[in-house]
Amino acid sequence: MRLFVIILGLTFLTACSNSADTDATGASAGQHDADLQATLLPDYLERINSNDLDTVMAGFTDDVVFQAPHGPEVAGKAALREWIGGYLAAFDTQWIKTSQDMIVSGDYAIERYAYQSTDTSKANGAVHTDEGKGLIVYHKESDGVWRVARDAWSTDLPIEAASNEAKTIVETAYAAVAEGDMATFAGLMTRDIVWNEAEGNPYADKNPYIGPDAVMTGLFARLAEEWDDFSATPHEYVVDSDRVIVFGRYNETYKATGVSLDIPFVHSWTVKDGKLAAFQQYTDTAALVAAMNE
Q1: Which domains does the chain have, with CATH numbers?
Q2: In CA terms, which of 65, 152, 175, 263 is 20 to 30 Å from 200?
Q3: Tell me, what's the pLDDT at 241?
Q4: Closest-CA residue to 206 (of 190, 191, 223)
Q5: Residue 161 pLDDT
Q6: pLDDT at residue 17, rounded to an integer
Q7: Alpha-carbon gap, residue 97 to 132, rounded angstroms
């Protein structure tokens, strides 16, 4: 609430100030504001572009809030660490943020910026670019360090670009699985992903799998133990905003029977806030059961 009141009062306080105002060091308030504008955003940008999770997180307050496009807000440093950690596990990212203006009041500053971003998939090298605008609220904390308390941004790209982003996330997931990079695959999931295997699939016994740990230990660990040469090869993508439907084929050999499968699948993915939020499988479960029981 205090932060909200301060933001509302920034314009009024700025209007009431004049060039004769001074800070504790005797420097003009205008010069102080200009110095902050020249240093805060470049420092934040350097942290982001380091692609190092600890370096990035050191620049946030404990009560930080992120409001990114196409998803719910992320509140608190622990939740943000998980969100950024998954992002950096999947992508190498580079941002350009250009300050438009800044208003400073006491221990708070609000900055308006324009951005361009480039995310390169670590799994398959696919490149996603974005551009837009945002607002950052900085807070000077008790140790004298200015840190980011709020960052909210929106894309200027049309809806089709958002759909392309969803497709890129799903493509990255298939590439990670194909390369055996299961850490990247898990990092692409939301912490509460809802995963359902097809009805009639023996591995639907634990539906729904909730969260990356359930998916990886409850499903993929069993698949690795019981099947050889598993692959899920996508052939066609149908994208509608945050929904991605994938048509492809499974190839695998059941260890206990030695029977190999080559069967079609349809996967329905939901992407939210740049991560995999839901999965539904459709496949030839009769052939799957037969291979496991022959």
Answers
A1: 2-157 (3.10.450.50), 161-293 (3.10.450.50)
A2: 175
A3: 81
A4: 223
A5: 59
A6: 43
A7: 10
Q: Are 176 and 199 in contact (CB under 8 A)?
A: no
d(CA 225, CA 209): 18
- CB neighbours (10 Å) of residue 138? 25
Reported pTM: 0.57
Hey, what are 178's tokens? 């194909």
Low-confidence ranges of the chain (pLDDT < 50): 1, 4-27
Contacts of 292 (CB under 8 A, 6+ apart): 202, 254, 256, 257, 259
Closest to 235 in 3D by CA, of 215, 250, 221 = 250
**First and final CA of the chain: distance in angstroms?**
65
Indicate the DSSP class of residue 32: H
For residue 89, give every residue at least 6 positions away whose Cβ sits within 8 Å of its Cβ, in sequence order, or none. 122, 183, 184, 187, 188
Q: What DSSP string runs through 51-107?
A: T-HHHHHTTEEEEEEEE-TTS--EESHHHHHHHHHHHHHHEEEEEEEEEEEEEEETT
pLDDT tens sequence across 176-234: 899 888 988 999 999 999 999 999 999 999 999 999 999 999 999 999 999 999 999 99
Determine the Cα angle at 55 with ends 10 and 99, to 5°: 35
How far is the C-alpha of 207 from the C-alpha of 194, rounded, in Å? 9
Report which secondary-structure segment, H or E, holds 211.
none
Beta strands in 68-208 (DSSP E): 74-75, 91-105, 108-121, 127-140, 146-155, 189-196
